[in-house]
Amino acid sequence: MSKLGDWIDPQPSGIYLPAADAWVDPSQSVARALVTHGHADHARGGHGEVWATPETLAIMDVRYGAQNARPVAYGEALSLGGIDFHFVPAGHVLGSAQIVLEHRGERVIVSGDYKRREDPTCAPFKVTPCDVFITEATFGLPVFRHPATHDELDKLLEALRANPDRCVLVGAYALGKAQRVIRELRVMGFDDPIYIHGALQRLCDLYVEHGVDLGELRPATGVAKAELQGRIILCPPGALNDRWSRRLPDPITAMASGWMRVRQRARQRNVELPLILSDHADWDELIDTIRDVAPREVWVTHGREDALVHWCRQRQIKARALDLSGYEDEDD
């Protein structure tokens, strides 16, 4: 008797689909790649052809140059080598997708990275029942329960109001997190100009081109200190404590990341204002998602795998960890 999902071959470099001669999120260049989203631990350059959402392809163009692209709209029905598949939203970043694979009467979902809470910069996660659910576990421990987004950003605004002679410098991952912080602030009614590090400009422009209103953004470089007092400035995490930041007016150093739940991580980065804001599912969201999609098996791709596998097995859901390489511990 064949095993569930035995037509899928998880390898250290990615998930291989032999019948389609295609890889999902391969960590090295391949002839045909199906890509869930644009983060560097899932999307790489140099593939023969790339099947992804138009937004993910646009992100890859910015990061790696023009791709031999096959745009895939959400819900578009496709087939390769007898494997039927389509993409549905993952709620992670702009253009992020779960890849729904159907073959031999089975449905397998490669979810990529995902979150369940509302995000005004991308399409929300779509619950799709399946036989095998391949899930991340970046925050796969019960200690990781993310607070409400606007509660965290209220802390940022309170710090700004209390320190009019300083600025608040927010470290935020260049793809997804930076744009989400900006858009969430706009939704909360913050209409002042927001200043950004030059490394964020191209991806912010791309989000705007895809209909995400970020309001007025200004470059933070080449600006007098006085102009930056009482302002919010965003930069990549690596710029928080480098020479670039030293020219700012006594910055309150903040960091927007799910890892700010871990105090040691905040201390290591000299973060004065930790903001627990993640683009990944927390523990409760991981559990709720497994319950919602009701799979017969759960395969865990990376992160804190053991706890999630244990939770599944306690509930008579067959589960195993996949040994995939090339996944980075993102600043989330």
Concise overview:
It is an enzyme of class 3 (hydrolase). With 332 residues, the chain is α/β, with parallel strands linked by helices. 23% of the residues lie in helices and 24% in strands.
Question: Main traits of this protein?
Answer:
globular; Metallo-beta-lactamase, Chain A; alpha/beta; Rossmann fold; seven-stranded mixed sheet; 24% strand; 332 residues
Structural class: alpha/beta
- Outline the biggest β-sheet: 7 strands, mixed
* Element-level helix/strand string: EEEEEHEEEEEEHEHEHEHEEHEHEHE
* CATH class type of the largest domain: Alpha Beta
How many strand segments?
A: 19
Task: Report the β-strand fraction as a percent range.
Answer: 15-25%
Q: Ranges with pLDDT <50 over ≥5 residues?
A: none
Cα-to-Cα separation, first versus last residue: 41 Å
Helix content: 10-25%
CATH topology of the largest domain: Metallo-beta-lactamase, Chain A
The CATH architecture term of the largest domain is 4-Layer Sandwich
CATH superfamily of the largest domain: Ribonuclease Z/Hydroxyacylglutathione hydrolase-like
Count the DSSP helices.
Answer: 8
Major β-sheet strand ordering: 7-8-9-10-11-18-19
Domains, number = 2
How many whole angstroms does the radius of gyration measure?
Answer: 20 Å
Keywords: Exonuclease, Hydrolase, Ligase, Nuclease
Protein name: Ligase-associated DNA damage response exonuclease
InterPro entries: MBL (IPR050698), Metallo-B-lactamas (IPR001279), RibonucZ/Hydroxyglut_hydro (IPR036866), RMMBL (IPR011108), Xnuc_lig_assoc (IPR026360)
GO molecular function, one term: ligase activity
